[in-house]
Write a structure and sequence with these properties.
RNA_MeTrfase_RsmD, 16S rRNA (Guanine(966)-N(2))-methyltransferase RsmD, globular, DNA_methylase_N6_adenine_CS, nucleic acid binding, alpha/beta, 16S rRNA (guanine(966)-N(2))-methyltransferase activity
């Protein structure tokens, strides 16, 4: 069972995407990730973007822990419907709309952001499907880069068998951590 781990709605169960379409972030990885993000003070008041959202559990967890706004971006219709249910769950728990869902391909969503001043995200989760090619991933990172706040944190989750992504010049990796078959890369805007 997927659940919100901590924050205002800690312990609240979340809907999961049926089948093998997505691979949810395990509670172990999620706990370690959010512990690190809280120690970096990257959550409170943050504008969060969850790309390739799956069930939206990372974005919803961020909302429970004090994010100001969360946008979930998911293309698959079934997964997007689960995102909608989970967004409604957290929005109800918070008593206001913090989480919104966009059924869109990541490239299309990022292509609609008009300019670097229109939308700036402080925290971005990217958990693309493992079959996503490295070129597509690099393209998404490059499209994201102009829309990051100066102190933004990008968290990219991939299989340990996947190569490190090609970071665009505007984004640089500052850490990585392996948890079993999962690897997290942490990046920030380059100086």
């Amino acid at each position: 069972m997927t659940r919100i781990i901590a924050g205002v709605a800690g312990g609240t169960p979340l809907a999961s995407v049926p089948g093998t379409l997505t691979r949810p972030t395990t509670d172990r990885v999620k706990e370690a990730l959010f512990s690190r993000l809280e120690s970096m003070d990257a959550l409170t008041g943050a504008h969060v973007l969850d790309l390739f959202a799956g069930s939206g559990s990372l974005g919803v967890e961020s909302a429970s822990r004090g994010a100001a706004s969360v946008e979930l971006v998911e293309y698959d219709g079934g997964a997007a419907a689960v995102c909608q249910r989970n967004a409604a769950t957290i929005n109800d728990a918070l008593g206001r709309k913090v989480v919104s869902v966009h059924r869109s391909k990541v490239e299309s969503f990022l292509g609609r952001v008009p300019d670097a001043n229109a939308e700036q995200w402080d925290l971005v989760f990217m958990d693309p499907p493992y079959p996503l090619g490295e070129v597509e991933l690099s393209t998404a990172l490059a499209a994201l880069a102009p829309n990051l706040s100066p102190e933004a944190v990008v968290v990219l989750e991939r299989s340990t068998r996947s190569p490190e992504p090609t970071w665009p010049a505007a984004v640089e990796r500052f850490a990585e951590k392996k948890y079993g078959e999962t690897r997290l890369w942490f990046a920030e805007p380059a100086d």
